[in-house]
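User: I'm putting together a teaching handout on how sequence relates to shape, and I'd like one worked example. Could you take Acyl-CoA reductase-like NAD-dependent aldehyde dehydrogenase from Streptomyces achromogenes, show the sequence you're using, and then write out its predicted structure as tokens right after it?

Assistant: Happy to. First the sequence, then the structure tokens directly below it.
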Amino acid sequence: MSAAREPGVGAGQRLFVGGDWVEPDGGHYEVVDPATEGIVGRAPEASPEQVREACAAAREALGPWSRTPPEERAAVLARAADLIRARLLPYAGLAQAESGATTATARAMQVGVAAARFRRYARVEPAEWPIPPQINEAGGGTSHALQAVGAGKAGVMGALAVRQPVGVVACVTSYNNPWANPAGKVAPALAMGNTVVVKPAPQDPLSVYRMAEALEEAGVPRGVVNVVSGRAVAVGETAVSSPDVDMVSFTGSTAVGQRIAEACGRDMRRQLMELGGKGAAVVLDDADLASAVAGIGTTFSFYSGQICTAPTRVLAQRGVYDRLVEQLALYARRLKVGDPREADTVVGPVISAAHRDRVESYVELGRKEGAVVVVGGERPPSERGFYVAPTVLADCTNDMRAVREEIFGPVVTVVPFDDEEEGVALANDSDYGLIDYVWSADVARAFRVARRLRAGGVGVNTVGRNMEAPFGGFKKSGVGRDVGSYALHAYSEVQSIVWPG
């Protein structure tokens, strides 16, 4: 096993830079279990100079890795997938301790999804597409084409579109899923021949070092993968502004995304941004309420509400509004809040005490704005841990801050509407546009509404996802698309090669 493995809380994790496990210049800080408030381990605090070294190492490794045959790159990813899958239980235990996820979530949705993503991008896909020949008639065509074949002469121009790696990618990842989120960036980036510098979220970075360890054992060359962590803002800022970085892939809040975009814009650096969400769930008056309540309830309580795809802004047509509020409240009351290690726990803690306070402040703000707290609104009894009760705010209006702003906790707001036109208008009256949802027994009606929603994805009578479908947001929910083959496009540049036929 690698020397990187942390033998205990006291030892401290090392950084992974240029293929070496190195001691951090800034020492270590404690990673806290949000369920117990105990110490999970000691994470490394990189200095800006170490971040620059990581970016330089990725730059040096780029040439050889990008020229490595795709089949060989895929074999590395496949071996990494096998290693992650083989260590699912210890990896999930660490992820649970860092993030507060329930056991089922840590195993299936964190480590399990990460292994599946490495396996997915171990599949080699074509990187070249022929373009139909263009016939340039004498005296016609574009000026460039005429220059190529001789002015006034006819010619046939062949063309090929070729996907090329972007270069060095800085992957800045979110705290709500310390496995699936970085895997969704690293795996397609490596598959396309890029090299990466991963800056994990400061709250739960230890899992990302285990991922790097698996990649090292799988045979990834030195410098192709680098991991640098830290609580200081300078760690992330140095990574995203490094002249060695060609692209930034970020998942997190819109506010931070805007700052990263400003830094990228100064050097025209490529961006892939998955930002905030305030998903609208449009429940029409002919909807199957049991299905709608189950979908909304499971998703807004998933990860204790710390998920950007959650339908936390419910828009209910008046014909079903009262029944929907009542059933959502019943559902929320049945959700067990507590120790995520207990098998029947549904809602574990939020990530930190500070975030718990933030979520609770939004519930209180909703009260002051005139919303009715139907269920929740009080801190669950617990001696330790950062717990928030699942909360339903009813009688809301779309101008309330609790309705408009991303709370990122187990809180759902319910807004009534009269007709389909108003429902669509309310759904689109948002700064966000990541994933919306529509429930209706009339599938044609549901699809009609779905196509009018300004969101990157729409679930029709479901909160499930197709993992080959493009994922990303409209408006302030992000820039670009990934998942499936779309991620290969996201982590590549398209080059045109043209020749006379």
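A couple of points you could highlight for students: The chain has 16 helices and 22 strands. The chain has two domains: 15-124+165-275+479-494, 280-470.
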